[in-house]
Amino acid sequence: WNRLVSWIWPMGCILPPAAVVSLTHKDAFPPLWHLAPGDIKDYSMKDNKIIIDAWNYEERLGMYKIMLNHSSKYFTAFGSNNVGNILWGLPLQHGWQYHTGRLALPPNTTCGHGSGDHLCISVQSWWGCMNYYLAIIPFLGALEAGFFGQLKYPVEILPPEEQKEDFCYSVSDCHSQIPKLMDEWKAYFETPASIKLDDALNYLWKAHVASIDYALPKFKNRLKYLSGPESNFGKNWANGVEFIAATHFPTDLRNTSEYQAFLPPRLLVEGDAIPFIGDFSPEQNKVLLSLCVLHKTNEFTGRQHICGIFLLLSKELSLQNNFLLCPVKFETR
């Protein structure tokens, strides 16, 4: 792990300890975490079914909270209050999407905006749709694995008002549509309690990457609702996850919170030119540039030698090379 980190640092994908932001325990949690359901029984019932509105931020966040609560006993050796749980990466990423307005697209609607329903997740949001396969599918995979014990009532996910065919809504429905992806998440939640942390991370990251690989082509039509820079960042982010997964990055509360501070604090807009976005920190600009370089290099060389590409990038590419791969636009005034 230390060797891999030393390779990645020059590219800005993982920042050295001196650059890491110090966060309080309260700051680390996703927005509205304390309001999210913490038990399946906290959701509403209808027709003898437990109903979850996956297009409501708090209700989707609650699915993560339940998974974390039920898995806390496996991570007691890694810190008190469940801080060492490697599932934290998922809700923290979802919280960042909510906080930065990435679930509220497009801007000409009331869904997800302060003037309307700020908890609404838009079915046009590329980020919200991608996250569906990193929230609902893990939850249903855990449900299929019996991770929550024997439930008295079946669980059903409410569909969005449109584009319903892009999603599945129950264990049986999802298993019929995406059996391999469901099996990946089920396998993670079936890992024995005695498993080593690195092996658990392997299962988790394997399922995580599988979700992105499935969702990325499925929701490419949602990218049209984003600005050019935001669309490129989204694709770079999806590609970058695979590189981070190769390191088995430990996605506990502290690690994820600290490094997530270097993701963009708002949606990118037309005119944003990395790495010179004025209201972003130098570290945020550097991470955006690094993700772009990783993606471009991956496109040029293919994905067959992912670790070799990592080493090549970190040892050989200078900032000048980075600009050649990810050209910036300079505007004259």
From TrEMBL:
Keywords: Glycoprotein, Secreted, Signal. GO terms for cellular component: extracellular space. It holds the Pfam family Leg1. Belongs to the LEG1 family. Transmembrane segments: none annotated. This is Chromosome 6 open reading frame 58. It comes from Crocodylus porosus. Residues 1-20 form the signal peptide. It is found in: Secreted. The keyword Signal applies. The gene is C6orf58. InterPro entries: Leg1. PANTHER family: LEG1, PROTEIN LEG1 HOMOLOG. The keyword Heme does not apply.
